[in-house]
UniProtKB/TrEMBL annotation:
Belongs to the glutamate--cysteine ligase type 2 family. YbdK subfamily. It comes from the Bacteria. HAMAP family: Glu_cys_ligase_2. InterPro entries: GCL_type2/YbdK_subfam, GCS2, Gln_synth/guanido_kin_cat_dom, YbdK. It catalyses: L-cysteine + L-glutamate + ATP = gamma-L-glutamyl-L-cysteine + ADP + phosphate + H(+). PANTHER family: GLUTAMATE--CYSTEINE LIGASE 2-RELATED. One of its GO terms (molecular function) is ligase activity. It is an enzyme of class 6 (ligase). The keyword Ligase applies. This is Putative glutamate--cysteine ligase 2. NCBIfam families: gshA_cyan_rel (TIGR02050), PRK13517.1-1 (NF010041). Keywords: ATP-binding, Ligase, Nucleotide-binding.
Amino acid sequence: MTSPGTTLGVEEEFLLVDAETGLPAPGATAVLACAGQGPTSLQRELLSTQVESATGVCETLAQLGDQLSRGRALLASAASANGMLLLSTGTPVLDGGPPPHTVGERFESIMGSYAGVVANYQVGGCHVHVGVPDRDTAIAVINHVRPWLPSLLALSGNSVFAAGRDSGYASWRTMEQTRFPGGGATPWFGSAAEYDAEVARLAECGAIVDEAMCFWLARPSPRFPTVEIRVADAVPTVEEALLQAALTRALVRTALSEVDSGREAVRVPDQVAAAALWTAARHGVTGFAVHPFEHRRVPAASMIADLFKHVRDALADTGDEDFVETTTKAVLREGNGADRQRAAAVDGPRAVIDMLAAAVSR
């Protein structure tokens, strides 16, 4: 890590589907064996229909974009060689029933703990890591970032389908996650010790498998000196993943500045935070959002504009301002992934699958 709030990395979770039927395909082992390794780390997920690509540590969006593109290309090529397509989507378009889970002691423990909740849990996310100096700072940063998580979710919404049908949500993945204990917006903590004690209590209660696993949407990484923001759906394109990364880094940089100046984060009430996340999952970038500070409904586009204003100086510092402004306007104009899935669905589910498969390389 060079300076706090500079380094970043992204983990992307993908779905494998049969190239002919479009149904989820349990081909992770074959795809990973064929793909090899590049600048990204290619890994298994809980279910055999999914794979993950994790970038290395990057300092610029150009570096990050190159690694994201190369990771996607390796996995897409390996999927094609095995009669499959690689999709970046929060939930499957078609429902093929519960797939086999990945073999391994930890995976077995997760399946044993959560049973039916994870049996068909084929959801994909885009997780962004940003470097911070220490865990206490990470907690303070999360407190400041917490009110803006719904806006990141709204921009990323890309999981329309539930059991093969339109759920009516921009992010059905978010609804799937509410079935786990201790999920949603991260509670306000005064220190890393408070955070660790609460995670340990959840583990002692049996609500999580171990202390390295929690379901909050923002957390200090259990492995790296980073803040990990896990609110976004898996997004269709590299450009949208870069948008999430740039906004997340800017939020962390802004939070670090606020922490350095002694400003404490606003304590958004838990129920308001939950309502804001639900509303973002339901409506995405269309309709309304919940203003976390004013506790009222506002247009979603207005809340996203407020996010941009909040982080504008940080974006200018890293040279990302023009990219974020242009890409955000494009999402508001053309719709997020969920909007584009619905537009394609007019021609049937196969059109959605083909659209998502083509978007992986963009």
